[in-house]
Amino acid sequence: MDPDSALITRAQGGDAAAFREIFARHRGDVSRLVFRMIGPSSDVEDVVQEVFLNVYRSLPSFRGESKFSTWLYRLATNVTRMHLRRGRSRPRFADVEPPEAPRDDVPSDAPDEQIDRKERVQALYRLLDKLSEKKREVLVLHDLEGMAAKDIAEVAGIPVLTVRTRLFYARKELYAALAEEPSLRAVMEQLLDELPGRPQRARSDEQDSEAP
Amino acid sequence: VSHTPKTAALIAHAEGLLSDAGEARLARHLGSCAVCREELARIRAYEKVAVEARAALPEIDFAKMDAALERESARISREIRQKAKRPPYGLYAMAVAAIVLLGLLIAWPDSRPPETSRREPEPEPTVTAPPIVFLEPTVTLAAGGATKAPRVALHAGDVLHEGDRLETAADGVLHVILTGETGVVVEPDTIVTLAQAREEGVKLALASGRVSSVVEPFQRSSTFVVLAGGHSIEARGTRFVVSYLDGVVGVDLSQGAVLVRTPDAREIELDAPARWSSSGIAADTGDEPAQAATPRPLGSVAVQLSAPDVMRWELDGTTVDTTGVVQLRVAPGEHRVRAWHRDDRVFNGLVRAGSEPVFLSEGELTAEAPRLRQGHLEEADIQRVMQEGRRQIARCHERAMRLRPDQRPPPMRLRIHVGLLGEVSRVQLLGAGDAAPELRECIVRYAESWTFPPPGGSVPPIELPLTFSARM
């Protein structure tokens, strides 16, 4: 049974407190999804509010044929998609910074490492921005939100196989573009060094690449 | 010979989905295939950064959304309840329509066979998007300790944004102009969030302290709301003060009218002059509030206050933010007046209210002593912090040189402002315009984390000259 069903029934009966409870229960998930879909943008809060205004308006017509969380994710992706399309208001990475990770529960490291990590996350969002809307959506839901392919299929209204195909090609495009971003290329080269079977580089190369 | 990397197999390997035999085959292949090794490094690099991106979570101030969502849920709930009360004319109409449609289908000679019935999909949610016009709230006065989170000192001319959390210290005060004649004064010891700053409306979420507001309607449909302790105080064309101290919400209204909504959905309309307090109200219990909705008039003697360049007046705890003439009605007797000058000076005055109107002007005000005490930092303490700081700055330089080996940073000066508790309240890098942004940001971030012993008052900023060699 859908854990939200009692709440939905109350809201559909005109109980204003039930609307508030729906917001309190799901706002965290929705904000995370919106943030990951549009990137570190100052618009996230506006979009989240827009999602819940639409949830409230559409709730009376919700018939419970799908899980409420799936319906909510579908609505959130629709609102976010509209936001991205409207005036091509894609994330403005130049002037918006992503929140810093790790957060309270993880010890923070030195500022230079924080800056490196922030730059890598920004670089990833820049690459995500180059993907087509459909591929980006599937990749974000799967790789960043951790949703299963069958749930994405329900949210996006496409077959599971299409989800898997889009995900594969989205990742492939990302891998190919990774080297365009210096911060990501550095990670890649470091990992490449750690793989077995790499030919030894010339001694002079190593000296050149050492830190001053 | 060109070789296409085995991406699918490599992803399966990275996700641990290959069989033992598959793993062994891939390991052999990787040993001799540079292209696939590189592809695997890309896959792992992406996974590593995706983990970092997953950990970066948005910091959302949900309180900002409360008013809009409350309004909408109240409207929808009302509609639903009204619909439930209406007689089901819709059902009759649908039945009539169905009979007519059935008749038409029977009478239609070429009617197609009915399609196999299938379940209607869940209707797509309605999506509407009204345009949003943001205001540019601007600081016109920042005296004493006035910051926005996280500990960014504010100065006159700074532009604020929706979501900014403003804090004033015990000696701090902040004036913010929102638009035209609408502005707020954040009084000492106050924490308030600029929850909404849009043409459609302004919303302040008061966590503690006092906020004075002067509100002129800047758009016909716009609203100005202060949220405090579950109450919503809505105003139009009003001068009023909202306080939230020790769990009690108070409203001092000197002009216009406000509508107070309590957490238990009561609505109280106040007309100036009036005072109202939530004390005695038991939220969510349905108890009758003690003396609620009975505005207490301040008095009947007209008082007029005016002085050049005074931006804020306070009389008997009622604060008015204006550069013009202030007109109030007070009770007969003596009243203490304070005036905040544009250049941060504070003046005191006394109003003797009898039966005639009282006019208080510039000549009747006396200057108040500066409120900031002089502090002191020992040279040895400064050197101790700087010694570690220099090592951190050297690390920033090393990193910058790795990224941009050809770019030698110019000499620069690091200026540090130390707060009352020894924290670094502000960092400036002077002459660093040509330096790499990563270097600048790294130095500033380290400097912001430094801590000095509490200086016990205000101290002049500390300057550290920085010169970088080609290699450190």
What does the model show?
The complex is a heterodimer of chains A (212) and B (472). Chain A contains ten helices and no strands. Chain A has helices at residues 5-12, 16-38, 44-58, 68-85, 111-130, 133-144, 149-156, 160-177, 182-194, 203-209. Chain A is elongated, with a radius of gyration of 21 Å. The N and C termini of chain A lie far apart (62 Å). Residues 89-96, 101-107 and 200-212 of chain A have low confidence and may be disordered. In chain B, strand 7 and strand 8 form a beta hairpin. The relative contact order of chain B is 0.06. Chains A and B meet through helix 2, helix 3, helix 4, helix 5 and helix 8 of A and helix 1, helix 2, helix 3, helix 4 and helix 6 of B.
Residue share in β-strands of chain B: 25-35%
Q: What is the mean pLDDT of chain A?
A: 79
Largest sheet of chain B: 13 strands, mixed
Number of helices of chain A: 10
Element pattern of chain A in H and E: HHHHHHHHHH
Q: How many β-strands of chain B, per DSSP?
A: 24
Instruction: Evaluate the radius of gyration of chain A.
Output: 21 Å
Proportion of β residues of chain A? under 5%
Oligomer: heterodimer
- The percentage helix of chain B is 25-40%
| Rg for CA atoms of chain B | 33 Å
Structural category of chain B is: alpha+beta
Estimated helix fraction of chain A: 55-70%
Largest interface: A-B, 89 and 78 residues
The stretches of 5 or more residues of chain B where confidence is low (pLDDT under 50) are 109-120, 125-130, 280-298
Give the N-to-C terminal Cα separation of chain A.
62 Å
- How would the global form of chain B be characterised? flat
Q: pLDDT under 50 segments of chain A (min length 5)?
A: 89-96, 101-107, 200-212
- Strand element count of chain A: 0
